[in-house]
Amino acid sequence: MKSVHIDHLLQIFGYAGFSFMLALIVFPFFIRLIQRYKLTKKLREKTMTGAEAEIFKKLHAHKNGTPTMGGVVVIASVLCGVLLSWILSRLGITEISILDRGETYLPIFTMITVGALGVVDDLLNIRESSAQKGLSARIKFWTLFGFAILGALWFVFKLEFNSLYFPGLGNIDIGLWYFPLFVLVIIATAHSVNLTDGLDGLAGGLLLIAYSVFAAIAYAYNLPILALFCCMISAAIASFLWFNVPPAKIYMGDTGSLALGATLGVMAMMTNSLFILIIIGAIFIIETVSVILQLFWKKYFKRKLFLIAPIHHHFEALGWSETQIVMRFWLIGIVVGMLGVVLGLYRI
After folding, report:
1. Residue range(s) defining the domain that contains residue 101
2. Structural domain tally of the chain?
């Protein structure tokens, strides 16, 4: 039994190392390619309420023209690792293939489909002649809704998921309520990560922590292939952060934030760890709530609650440096991440 676990660990670190090195090698070439074809970030000119984004433009004017769509390399390096595992298993060199129907089909499908949605959104945002910046919120919502419906169908009717773990109560059968809950989790996670992706290194660092937590939990729950997939994603994100820490040479764009956010939600549901997602995703939740409160205050009180939302920009407007905000949010992410691991292992 110990040799099996050691073999799993060796393959996990091996494939994770492959994804990390591949992304690290490809990113410099990708950045130059993006610069050559001028696929660079365009600052938003309007707030969510339609007003001029004056504070945002003042804070981030220096970032205009930075290469974006780094999520393409992250996703591609992970998928190359998946393909490599399938080839090596077919050749009989290894036993593990990440293309495991029970554990990774849906996460892989989610990463590819939502990533494709992000690519379209990024390309529309980049176009100088585009009347609006990227896809409309309505189109993104309903497209994500459609993907989430497909995922919920797979979970409920193919994998036969119908229970949810509640701390102190154990697994509770919620029947068909699992279906709308799954849809809500995927849409909410994708959008919350997308909203958090506003400062150099912020979303990437928090995603690295979150996926590392779910890698540990999946391995502890005897889901080694899912743990391997999470580790590969974490490794690819680590390579991205090498080029994304302040001052960023590239952004992940909606390609990365939407895809990695939605896939994170799937990981939580695959491991029956929704309550852990809520804990380790504390910053993502706070960012989303800050936007909701800002819109509510503007509509009903005719004034702003925050200087600018999401809340990381509010701290910027107060005079915090970008590095201070990112590092402090990372520290919070590490603390809640450790708490998530402890609570996850407590269930065993």
Report:
1. 2-346
2. 1
